Amino acid sequence: MEESVNRRDPNGFLAAVQETFPGKRQDIRGYSPLTLAYIGDAVYDLIIRTVVVEQANRPANALHHITVKYVSAGAQAKIVEALMDRFSEEELAVYRRGKNSKPHTTAKNASVADYMKATGFEAVLGYLYLTDNMERALELVKEGIAAAGIGDTDRL
Questions:
Q1: Is 41 one of the annotated active-site residues of the chain?
Q2: Which of 33, 35, 102, 104 has a CB 3.0–4.6 Å from the CB of 98, allowing a cystine?
Q3: pLDDT tens column, 77-93
Q4: Burial of 29 (0-12, 13-18, 19+ CB in 10 A)
Q5: Of 34, 35, 63, which Cα lies nearest the Cα of 50?
Q6: Which of 84, 56, 54, 51 is nearest to 70 (CA)?
């Protein structure tokens, strides 16, 4: 895990946020899996929303309907199932921690199993974001959507 933990792009988004809002920094390895999933949920949502908006200028309701197909726990569970053999050892360890965590809420429209898989996937994305490895996060999202057969990653 050491290699990813020490990586930082001084011109990247994460560095800009940290520079704008300076404060105490915690070692990423000390973050709970639910904290990683919390930020990973936002990262995944932003990736999908960005792709959807880039495809066409549509009414907000239409954007939302397209986005929902990709950001649901069920869709994320399919993505992570398709990605399992593509995770590095490090990513797999973070995924397992996230999947086995004890969340205080559950998804309204998903099974507990799908919700836990989605939580694990979000933990991986949160970990990748906080270790400044967005290139890998984008790669996993694109490959996962394609491998799960959820949609065309070139035309969400």
A1: yes
A2: 33
A3: 999 999 999 999 999 99
A4: exposed
A5: 63
A6: 51
pLDDT score, position 25 = 82
Among 9, 27, 41, 132, the one annotated catalytic: 41
| pLDDT score, position 132 | 93
* H or E element that contains 103: none
This prediction has a pTM of: 0.88
**Cα dist from 130 to 65, 106, 120, 122, 136, whole Å:** 29, 25, 15, 12, 12
All residue ranges of the chain with pLDDT < 70 are 1-8, 104, 107, 151-156
Task: Please tell me the distance from the alpha carbon of residue 126 to that of residue 129, in angstroms, as a whole number.
Answer: 5
